[in-house]
Design a protein that fits this description.
Elements (H helix, E strand, L loop, with lengths): L1 H16 L5 H12 L20 E4 L6 H14 L3 E3 L13 H9 L9 E6 L22 H15 L4 E6 L5 H7 L5 H10 L3 E7 L4 H9 L5 E5 L8 H10 L3 E4 L11 H12 L4 E6 L3 H16 L4 H11 L22 H14 L2 H9 L16 H5 L6 H13 L3
Parallel strand pairs: 1-2, 1-8, 2-3, 3-4, 4-5, 5-6, 6-7, 7-8
Bound molecules: iron/sulfur cluster (2 copies).
Length: about 400
Amino acid sequence: MVCACLDDIRKRLTSLILGRNCFHVILIELKMVKRGKINHIGKRTGVMQVNLSKILIGTMRVGDSDVTGRIIQRAIDLGSNYIDTVPLYRWSNNDENSETWVGCAVSSGNYRQRVLVSTKSAVSDGGLGLGSYNPSIGFGIRMKEQFSSMLEQSLSRLNLPYVDFYHLWMCHTKQQFEEAFKPGGWYEGLQKAQEDGKIKHLEITTHGDADTIIRFLETGAFETVTLPLNVLNVTRMKAVEYCARKGIPVLAMNPLGGGLLAVDSHLKELAFKYLLSLENVHILVGFTALEEVDDAWRMKREYEENPVSTETILQEVRQLIPNAEPHCTGCGYCQPCPKFIEVGSALSHYNLYHYLNLQEAKKAFLDLQWNPRYKLSNCIACGQCEKRCPNTLPVRKIIENAKKALYAQE
Ligand code: SF4
Ligand code: SF4
C-alpha cells in the first residue's frame, strides 16, 4: 500500500515537472491519504453516502425572511433535501441575510432533519484574482484563523452546531486553488473544523473551465462540484462527464441562464428537461416565489413520466435559439465599473433582445438611458469587468455588440 502510494506520488511529481499539476496538490493528496479520505490511487473512499435530490434549494434570489421560510419548507415537503447558501446572498446586515433566513426556516418542525445545509467562503472576491478580507460576505478568507471565525459567524447566523457541506466558493483558477491550500490557509481551517465536527463534507463551487475543474477534482479533496450549467451553456460538459465516470454529483447553478430561459414557459420547460436528462446532475434553483417550487417539482414529475433524450432537447433549443452561445448571466461579480455601469443588468436587455428577439427589451433599455447603470454608451472599454468575469466572457466585445444592437435606429 505504502509502495503503491509512493509510486503514485512519483507519477504525480512527474506531472508536476510537466507543468500539469502543482506541489500543493500533492501535499493535499498526501494529507488526504493520511486521513483515509482517498486511497493510494487517488480514488475517493466512502464519500457521498447521502443521495441528493434532483431539485435543490438555492438562496441567491430569495426575497425576505418570510418568503424564504415558506419557499424552503415547501421545497423540503416536496422532496428537496439540500439548501445552498452563502454569507453574501441577500446580505443587508448581520441579522438580515440568506444564512439567517435559512436558519430560521429549518428551525421549526423537523425540517432540519430532512435537509442538508451548506454554506461557503472564498479566497477570492468572486472574480479571477485573490480577494481582500471581507468576512461579512465571505470573501478573501485566506488564513486558517480567518476561516475559523468565518465559520463561527455562519454557524451563528444559521443557528446550527454544524453544516453538512462547506464549499470552497468561487475558486476558478489554479492561483486561487493554491492560495486555499497553502500552509496555514483556508483548507487548514476547514480541516480543523471537520475534526471538531462542525463541517461534514467539502464541496467546490467554480466557474473554471472544464480542464481546470477536472484538475481540482482529481485531488480527491471535493465530494461534489457546483458549476454553471444550462442548456445554453454546455462548455463544461467534459467536467460533467468526468464527474459521471467518477460518481461525483454535479450541482448545476444558473439552470435558467440568469433568467433568460425563464421568460418563456416552453424554454423554461426545455431548460429543466435538459438538466433532468443528465443523470449525475442536480438542479440548484434560485427560487424567488412559492409557485416556482411547485413548478420545478411538477416539471420533474412530468419528465419522469415522459422522458426525452438529451439530444432531442438540445435540437429543439437550437431551433428556438439558433445563435445560442455563452452569455452574461447577470451575476454581478464584475462590479464595480469606473463609469458606474451595472454590466449584468444592462446586458440582460441585450440577452432578451438578441437571443429571443424581444423588441420590448430594447425599448426598456432605451427608456433607462437616463440612468448611468444602464448607459452602455459610457463604456470606455477599460476591461476591468472582463478581468473579473468568472465566466471568462469577452465582456468588452459583448458590450460592443450590445451597443450596436440596442442603440441602432430601426
Ligand atoms: S459580465 Fe460576467 S461577471 Fe459580469 S454580470 Fe455578466 S456574467 Fe457576471
Ligand atoms: S469595460 Fe466598460 S463596462 Fe467594463 S468596467 Fe470598463 S467601462 Fe465599465
